[in-house]
Design goal:
By secondary structure, the protein is of the alpha/beta class. It is built from 7 helices and 8 strands, in the order E-H-E-H-H-E-E-H-H-E-H-E-H-E-E. The strands form 2 sheets. A 6-stranded parallel β-sheet has the order 3-2-1-4-5-6, with helices on both faces. It has a two-stranded antiparallel sheet with strand order 7-8. Strand 7 and strand 8 form a beta hairpin. It is globular.
Length: about 190
Amino acid sequence: MRIIVAVTGASGSIYGWRLLEKLRARPERVETHLILTRSGERTALLEMGKTAADFRALANHWYPVEDIGCTLASGSYSVDAMAIAPCSIHTMSAVAHGISSNLVVRAADVTLKERRRLVLMVRESPLHLGHLRSMTALAEMGAVLAPPVPAFYHQPQTVADIVEHSVDRVMALLGAAAEDARSWQGGQREQKR
């Protein structure tokens, strides 16, 4: 599988980081293509102390956000899915309205037009009507909106447990389910798959 992982400037850089780590652990199955925005770089440094080079080291391929002429900008380059983790409201709105001003938005636009999986981990709260209308437009276009809303049935003990659960959900939505993902067991004590 080829999966694009875009990391924008919304708070929650850990989601993109952990997604890249988990996909990297499956080199026989997944090839990752990273796009890290300038705001994403800054937020990752502030939140995690991670640099762009640290993120790039987790990906098979990476592209400057300004490189709208690279392979990811064309539908003729076959990829299976794309995740924007985290996804800023700015990026979500640009994707919803086809404003392809950078490689993240262009790659997402291509993903949608080619009818491929696009998952957005939108990070914002509360939401106003404009946000909701953009989300509705994206859902109508076939995107999956997967805000990292924590679940507690798996009895998380740490912030890392909460992050892991959201990332595992996104991996399943991308078609690359994590083998160690936890799932709901119908009211019974939750177990790993």
